Fold:
Amino acid sequence: MTSFGIMKFGAYVPRLRIERSIVAQAHEWMAPSLRKQAKGARAFMSWDEDAVTMAVEAARDCLGSASRKEIESIAIASTTFPYADLQHAALIASALCLKGDMAALDIGSSQRAGTSGLLQALQANKQSLFVASDAPIGKPASMQELSYGAGAAAFVVGTDNVVARVLGTSSVTAPFVDHFRASGERYDYFWEERWVRDEGYGKIAPIAAKEALANSGIAIEQIDHFVMPSLQRGAADLVARTLGFAKPVASGFEDNIGYAGCAQALLMLAAVLETAGSGERILLLGFGQGADAIVFETTDALAETRPARGVRGAIADGIATDSYLRMLSFQGGIGCEWGMRAEKHIKTAPTEQHRSREQIDGLLAGKCASCETVQFPQLAYCVNPKCVAPSSQFEPTSLVDVPAKVLTYTADWLSYYPSPPLYVGFAQFENGARILTEIVDVGQSSIDVGTPLHMTYRIKDRDKVRGYNRYFWKATPTITGE
Structure:
């Protein structure tokens, strides 16, 4: 019998990090008790990141340079989608240059949307890409503001070279209200923590876990890794003790990422797979209006299938900031006086965006068949004055994964930019292409001519009047060893 399970996996965590003590200090005038909980750091998105951009980056880490022609469907889970009526999975598929004749699905409305979506993908019996991407926002001076983080995890499921095969699954559905966020509201409303832990996690999650173990034909003593995310302190340990699991539970990255909503369970699973050996068994649990449980067993193929960066690489790639107001501004928590330059309205024409979608979404340059000059954007004729061959001879060449370096740059403090200064410069690619681009996530170390760069998928600009994001690729400095 052919085994079905996870073939590839990858992850993404925003580079920006802030020490929780800085957040607590900002609220010390009215909530001094936050200092006791302000340990470690948390990740947060830059102004030009959202669930879509994080999903693209996690999927890139998962897919690598492998062929994407075999992927038959794509799904994304999130509770922080930027749109109420526009399919995010289609946007992600286009940025990844996936084939058009495939199914696409958005999944949300629950903290277990990540595990439920992965479970559906595993039961579909076809090669699929599944991504969970989330960045919940906590009300200022709340415990959620300290605890929340951001991130995404991606998985290709199928039957070829499976690195973690499915042994058994189970789901329980229960209208247990631990928290909620009404449509149109910005923040979640939470119920009493101890009651949620004892009556919710403690009683509902073990039912799904026991059923999945029974379906797998194994006992809890045969599980090597217990993976269950929770905002409630001690909830994972409580469920583990209830089941009789005596080993330490998997890390929830409380000290360096925070709780990434419905993506948290899959970030934790990806991190476990990064270090697990062959033949190890994993119990994955997701909680929210019920519970999901999946039992995996790793295979020999895992040793040869590691993501380029993964969770640990993303954690190591952090950029520290000491500005709480920066985080609040990026999350839309404050309105700053940006001056008249910020008053312009940016309206995207969907017609032109559709016509140019391959070049824009996939950053597809044209390689001239006559002289091999690579150019972006693709014009009607080759830009080489000694060639000028027609564009009909161009070969589409993606610049997404081509290494580059800073050729020229400037730091602009005059133009409106949500994260000043605006770094703009020419990126010189190894294949000869050269493009003028924004350079983001520069950090305090700044950049210089020759600084290594790689491309990242971001929001190019926001139409604040109509609520539309225009996505494109930007350059970001590459850390040593990345």
Notes: The radius of gyration is 23 Å. The mean pLDDT is 95. The longest strand covers residues 452-463.
